[in-house]
């Protein structure tokens, strides 16, 4: 029997999350004229240009981190988190994503959400590259390596 990996499909939760991310990106652009890319936000905390830059970036990052606590307060239970890979694989994946974000001048949230919405050619190419690489990786892991 073939080893099948089950992927949960949550269209309503995904739609809601996507709408909130889009609304946050639009709000940040309207209020501060800034693009909401996670890599750029974190980089600006590590190396802030000035105090006002640090403040909004820290507030946004704090909001991202405290999201599970808000879910807990609203529902009475923490969101279930499943990480189906080992710690070494997480570390390797993190390094690869970091290198990709560095060489790609941004991350999936910056290019995929904000750059695509602004019809940035660079972001369109970057997002297509992310998607093609993701599809190829899933194919190799599931069908070639059999994991």
TrEMBL record:
Nucleus is among the record's keywords: no
Instruction: State the InterPro entries in the record.
Output: Sulf_transp_TsuA/YedE
Q: How does it sit in the membrane?
A: Multi-pass membrane protein
Major subcellular site: membrane
Q: Pfam families per the record?
A: Sulf_transp
Q: Which domain of life is it from?
A: Bacteria
| Sequence intervals crossing the membrane | 12-33, 54-75, 81-103, 124-145
Keyword field: Cell inner membrane, Cell membrane, Membrane, Transmembrane, Transmembrane helix, Transport
What is the annotated localization of this protein? Cell inner membrane
Keyword Transmembrane belongs to the record:
yes
Region forming the signal peptide:
none
Question: Which family is it part of?
Answer: Belongs to the TsuA/YedE (TC 9.B.102) family.
Q: Return the protein name.
A: YeeE/YedE thiosulfate transporter family protein
Q: What is the protein's species of origin?
A: Jannaschia ovalis
């Amino acid at each position: 029997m073939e080893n099948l990996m089950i992927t949960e499909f949550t269209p309503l939760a995904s739609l809601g999350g996507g709408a909130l991310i889009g609304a946050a990106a639009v709000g940040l652009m309207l209020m501060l004229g800034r693009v909401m890319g996670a890599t750029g936000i974190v980089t600006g905390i590590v190396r802030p240009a000035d105090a006002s830059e640090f403040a909004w970036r820290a507030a946004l990052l704090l909001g991202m981190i405290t999201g599970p606590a808000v879910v807990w307060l609203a529902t009475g239970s923490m969101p279930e988190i499943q990480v189906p890979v080992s710690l070494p694989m997480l570390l390797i994946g993190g390094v690869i994503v970091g290198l990709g974000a560095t060489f790609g001048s941004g991350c999936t949230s910056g290019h995929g959400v904000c750059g695509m919405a602004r019809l940035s050619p660079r972001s369109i190419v970057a997002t297509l590259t992310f998607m093609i690489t993701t599809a190829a990786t899933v194919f190799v892991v599931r069908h070639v390596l059999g994991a």
